[in-house]
Amino acid sequence: MDDILAPLQNAFEGQIVFFAPLPSSFHTTPSIPQYPFARSEPQLPELPANYHSPQDFHGQRLADILSTVLLIISGAVSFLTGYIYKDIYLTLWTGLAGTLLTALVVIPPWPMYNQHPEKWLGTARKGGPTVLVDGVKVA
């Protein structure tokens, strides 16, 4: 019994575990999956080879500052609105509207977030520049 409960206890305690298949005595019908729980590692799709995502650390800082300021302002406005009108639903709806406004301002890749793109090194070409570390070619 402990070998069955140990993975569940580890999962609830926040440890990353891979669940082993259940013993065959637990399978009553063939439709029960072999792994009853999702695996811990995410299955992300492969990006195309020509995918390019420019990095702009100034834009990331701007988005972080905007999200913090907008969420603080929307929280204060929603609290004051709810306090003045003594209505918790109005407080929640005002807070939700402020959160959605913040998401609309911060999440899309607006041009103001990509005004200072970083210049990265290109890929190594045959006969092109190489990286030497202590006289040893590493790239």
Automatic annotation (TrEMBL):
Keyword Ligase recorded: no
Family matches, as Pfam families: SPC12
Its membrane topology: Multi-pass membrane protein
Family, as annotated: Belongs to the SPCS1 family.
An example Gene Ontology CC term for this record: signal peptidase complex
Name of the featured protein: Signal peptidase complex subunit 1
InterPro entries: Spc1/SPCS1
Organism name: Penicillium canariense
Entry annotated with the keyword Nucleotide-binding: no
PANTHER family referenced in this protein's UniProt entry, alphabetically: MICROSOMAL SIGNAL PEPTIDASE 12 KDA SUBUNIT, SIGNAL PEPTIDASE COMPLEX SUBUNIT 1
Membrane-spanning ranges: 65-85, 91-110
Protein origin, superkingdom: Eukaryota
Keywords recorded for this protein, A-Z: Endoplasmic reticulum, Membrane, Transmembrane, Transmembrane helix
Main function: Component of the signal peptidase complex (SPC) which catalyzes the cleavage of N-terminal signal sequences from nascent proteins as they are translocated into the lumen of the endoplasmic reticulum. Dispensable for SPC enzymatic activity.
GO biological process: protein targeting to ER; signal peptide processing
Entry's localization field: Endoplasmic reticulum membrane
